[in-house]
Each structure stands twice: as C-alpha cells, then as structure tokens.
Amino acid sequence: MVTLLNIHPENPQNRMIEKAAQTLRDGGLIAYPTDSCYALGCALDNKAGIERITRIRQLDSKHHFTLMCRDFAQLGQFVIVDNSDFRVIKSMTPGPYTFIMKATKEVPRRMMHAKKHSVGARIPQNVTALALVEAMGEPILSSTLLLPGAEDPLTQADDVVDQIGHDVDVVIESGVPGTVPTSVIDFTGREPEVARVGAGDVSRFE
C-alpha cells in the first residue's frame, strides 16, 4: 500500500522529510514533486530501484538517469564540469535544467549511459526536493515521471497514486509542482547541444 505524505511546500516538516528519506535508504522508490513536474527517485546504490523506474517508464539503455543534487559543489562530485562550461552551468543553477555530462567514479555504472558513460545532473528550485536531497546527504537518482504513451508528465499527487501507486512506496504531495519537464543540455560534445526544450530558456545555445 503506497504511503501519501503531505509536506508543506515552503516549510517542509523535518519528520516528513526524514520519513521519505528513510524510505529511500531502505531501498524504496518514491514519487516526488520538483520545479519541473513529478519525478521518480531512489537511492544511488539501489539496483532494484533503477529496475523499477526502468519498468514503470519502459526505458531503454540510451536513457540518461538524473542525479538530483542539492548544490553546485555536490553536482561537481558526480559529474565532470570542464572549465569552459563551469560559468554557464553555474549561472543556470538552481533551475529547470538537466545537464548531460561525463560521470565521475562516484556514479554507479548501471545508471550511466551505456556507451557515453554520461549521466544527467540538476539542482532544482523546489524547496521540498532540495530538503529531501539534503536529508539524504547524497544525490537522488531520478527520472521524470512521464508514463509510456503519455504526452505530458504527471503533476498531481492524486494522479500519481491512481496510476502508479501500486508501483511506488511513497508519493509526496507538496504544493503545486512545475508542469513542464526540464530543458536538457548535453555537454558531452565539443559544443553544448540542446537535447530537449523544456521549462528553461535555451536561447543562449541556439
């Protein structure tokens, strides 16, 4: 039976955040709001969690999972930020952007892109998401909650419970999340490339 946690969107209750974090530590899978719609999340070392996300979203080996980070310093521990990209990426965080970059050895191999050894990373503006990452002390392995065949991601807790409540352990309800996925910028090539146009302004890369 899925647990629905109501968390204050501006002043998250510590006990509720800790309950969600403990679910992650215990190997659970959660659905939580971000500044760019709901995301599925599990702990970094949770192999079964990755498999559950892959099954729910019907993902292939080309999918980039995302590391939800609390700040730029933490992001830099898990992805390689070239000097030429440093200022650009830092100026866009926190915000509705996901950056595709080469992963460091801190990232479990099974969550990297099979050929590129890259991974997505982002710093959200959502207070609840940041509090959860802070409680974990490490990034949360995440993926946008976009179900197979759907044009738009899920944005309401009730809809998440109704559609995938049997597949997750906790659903967090915390204010109104974003309704548009992040813009995705790929920094693994010679020049940054827009991989997906979403909530963030990408005009500087066009």
Automatic annotation (TrEMBL):
<dbReference type="InterPro" id="IPR006070">
    <property type="entry name" value="Sua5-like_dom"/>
</dbReference>
<feature type="domain" description="YrdC-like">
    <location>
        <begin position="14"/>
        <end position="200"/>
    </location>
</feature>
<dbReference type="InterPro" id="IPR052532">
    <property type="entry name" value="SUA5_domain"/>
</dbReference>
<dbReference type="InterPro" id="IPR017945">
    <property type="entry name" value="DHBP_synth_RibB-like_a/b_dom"/>
</dbReference>
<dbReference type="Pfam" id="PF01300">
    <property type="entry name" value="Sua5_yciO_yrdC"/>
</dbReference>
<protein>
    <submittedName>
        <fullName>L-threonylcarbamoyladenylate synthase</fullName>
    </submittedName>
</protein>
